[in-house]
Amino acid sequence: MSEVLTGKRGLIMGVANDRSIAWGIAKAMAEAGAELAFTYQGEAFGKRLEPLAQSVHSDFMVDVDVTNDASLDAAFEQLSARWGSIDFVVHAIAYSDKTELTGRFLDTSRENFKNSMDISAYSFVEVARRAYPMMKENGGTLLTLTYQGSNRVVPNYNVMGVAKAALESATRYLANDLGPEGIRVNAISPGPMKTLAGAAIGGARKTFKHTDQNAPMRSNATLEAVGGTAVYLASDAGACTTGEIIRVDGGFHVLGMPQQDNL
Q: TM spans, by residue (predicted)?
């Protein structure tokens, strides 16, 4: 897939460190020839992001709070002033109170439910609303990240599962809205990965080990595999793929029970 994104420009939202899924995607897209811009939230994440952005020859970083309309407006105004148009956006943003990612979903607080839905699901709609005018002329791709806890119960995933279900539904509705303008909207669903976000979920290590041992491929997803999938979706090869939830989980989603040796 070398150079398949040459001449394309895009925005990567949600890189926390070099183990982030968003970083795996950014690295793969840069290697495929894309020119990248990045968002981050807060000074600490900005300091972590800066050397990573520089390593893929990007000098465009902007601080964004996706719960603040003015912040989002300012970011896309800066992006438009810099490039005029873009070809893709990667939305890798999610949040929930760590203390509520253990125990029962029943105990989710109203405040955390609303906050989790706002940041993890509704922010994709806000991003799409601002990104699509920059894609109208030549079309483009909007990508987000989800997880199988959206449609199957995963212990401790709790309100994030509900938020991911909303995100996946939003992906389908946005795909229908924006398809006539040549804009594709898809979600990538990796299995458990050793990321900063994943570590916040109770029992994360056990979940990672379980899927690694039982997936048909006997492996969890890698950053390279997720990145390659994103490259495909953003490339011309993905021209007729939209409204999809692409699973990159070693096949774990097809199982009805663990492998026989692990029962």
A: none
91-131 residue pLDDT tens: 999 999 999 999 999 999 999 999 999 999 999 999 999 99
DSSP letters, 52-108, are HHHHTT---EEE--TT-HHHHHHHHHHHHHHHS--SEEEE------GGGSSS-GGG-
End-to-end Cα distance, the chain: 39
SS3 label, residue 234 = helix
Q: Is 188 annotated for ligand binding?
A: no
Q: What tokens appear for 231 in the block?
A: 């490259």
Q: Which residues of the chain have pLDDT under 50?
A: none
243 assigned binding-site residue: no
Catalytic residue IDs: 147, 157
Q: pTM for the full model?
A: 0.95
8 A C-beta contact, residue 233 and residue 139: no
Question: 21 labelled as ligand-binding?
Answer: yes
CA distances (Å), origin 95, targets 60, 62, 100, 197, 201: 24, 19, 11, 8, 11
CB 101 within 8 A of CB 158: yes
